[in-house]
Specification:
The protein contains five helices and six strands. By secondary structure, it is α+β, with helices and mostly antiparallel strands. The chain starts with 14 loop residues before the first helix and ends in an 11-residue tail after the last helix.
């Protein structure tokens, strides 16, 4: 006969708060509605800077602990100054970061201690689409591959299940594989 134990912090995840948050959302689904936002400004050439500070969540406006600034640019071979990450690389960062965060939360909720989680991610793009040379070639990634090396105190099959559950619950994976409506409007003067 097993006895239930109180959840504890694990893998750097505050598991009691995680479970409390899940309980709040079960009782008040509107608390799960969040809106993330960013502002971007052109610097020069293909270089731009994005700032992230505020968001809406759990029923109110909130601020990150600090403001985050991200530079984006193209490499010199694509007529940029290489002042920052290529915009399509941010998608790779977003996907692998989202999957890794999910792994941390899910493993902690399941009582699994993680020793290490590392991933590599690659995306293939054919620039003939972006350059307009081949209308049959898509502009974005044609394929993305993610590989995880994960070590923990659970059998390999359980660690694989944790990665799969993270994939199933990942917001970024969902956006990248299912697409979403995006509107672009312009104020010009």
């Amino acid at each position: 006969m097993s006895t239930a134990t109180e959840p504890v912090a694990r893998n750097g995840v505050d598991v009691p708060t995680l479970f409390a948050t899940l309980d709040v959302v079960k009782g008040a689904p509107e608390a799960a509605k969040f809106q993330f936002r960013a502002t971007n400004r052109w610097v020069s050439g293909t270089h731009s800077q994005t700032t992230i500070s505020g968001f809406y969540g759990a029923g109110e406006e909130r601020q990150h602990v600090k403001t985050f600034v991200h530079d984006a640019d193209h490499p010199e071979v694509l007529v940029g100054g290489d002042h920052g990450t290529v915009p399509v690389e941010y998608l790779l960062v977003g996907l692998t970061s989202c999957l890794t965060a999910g792994i941390g939360n899910i493993a902690s909720a399941r009582g699994v201690d993680l020793y290490s989680v590392e991933s590599t991610i690659e995306g293939d793009i054919d620039l003939n689409g972006i350059f307009g040379f081949d209308p049959g070639t898509r502009n974005g990634y044609q394929q993305v591959r993610v590989h995880f090396d994960i070590q923990g105190d659970a059998p390999a099959a359980v660690l694989e299940e944790i990665v799969e559950q993270s994939r199933q619950r990942s917001a970024v994976y969902d956006v990248m594989t299912n697409g979403i409506p995006v509107t672009v409007d312009v104020s010009a003067g």
